[in-house]
Design a protein that fits this description.
five-stranded mixed beta sheet, Immunoglobulin-like, 27% helix, 3 domains, four-stranded mixed beta sheet, 213 residues, alpha+beta
Length: 213
């Protein structure tokens, strides 16, 4: 802004120098031209001085700006570093990597005003799923300790065993399929599951009925 103003003053001074010599004597014009030239020279010198001061001021301002670094760490993946001016925030926070069967989130949620170096760590928590038991046609007669079982991804699980007078519990099928489902050492599904009970008549009870349910 200052440079533009000084440039305008220089041009104005030069125009004034030439316009002043119209009707006056040669001697007067020459004298005014000399004065005007000196004035122009002084303006140019002042302009150069101001430019040097502005440049020095900009360099000092840049050297005074402090920065801070935020490091994002997730086990098994490369860390990510983001550097911002001290007091500024991070507008685009990197997303943690997904891990199957787990919930993943950063242990820090506020990145609006960062005043010091900081380390952010990914928290990885196994998800909990539900096994829902369907007793089938014998639902009104059969009993079961719990209608559902909570299971944690990656951990062992044990299925409930229902009972019903006059019938023998055979096992569980995944609802809507003929695929059997048993207790296991590690839950690997990433969703809840619904099981339906398979029954056979207990011939030792003397009920006289036959068949499988």
């Amino acid at each position: 802004m200052k440079k533009s103003l000084l440039a305008i003053l220089v041009v104005f001074a030069m125009i004034f120098a030439f316009s002043c010599g119209g009707d006056e004597s040669t001697e007067s014009t020459s004298s005014e031209s000399i004065i005007t030239s000196e004035t122009v020279s002084e303006i140019q010198s002042e302009s150069e001085s101001l430019s040097e001061e502005e440049s020095q001021s900009e360099e000092e301002s840049q050297s005074e700006i402090e920065t801070v670094t935020v490091t994002f760490i997730q086990q098994g993946f490369d860390s990510v570093e983001i550097t911002v001016n001290k007091g500024d925030g991070i507008t685009e926070v990197p997303q943690p990597h997904e891990v199957e069967g787990h919930n993943v989130h950063w242990d820090v949620t506020d990145f609006s005003a960062i005043t010091e170096d900081m380390t952010v760590t990914a928290i990885v928590t196994p998800n909990v799923y539900a096994i829902v038991y369907d007793l089938g046609e014998l639902e009104s007669e059969a009993t079961i300790a719990s209608p559902t079982t909570a299971v944690t991804y990656g951990e062992a699980y044990t299925l409930e065993i229902p009972s019903c007078d006059g019938y023998v519990f055979v096992g569980w099928l995944i609802y809507g399929t003929q695929e059997s489902f048993d207790s296991g050492d590690a839950w690997t599904l990433t969703d809840d599951v619904r099981l339906i009970a398979v029954w056979e008549i207990d011939f030792t009870s003397g009920s006289g009925e036959t068949g499988r349910y």
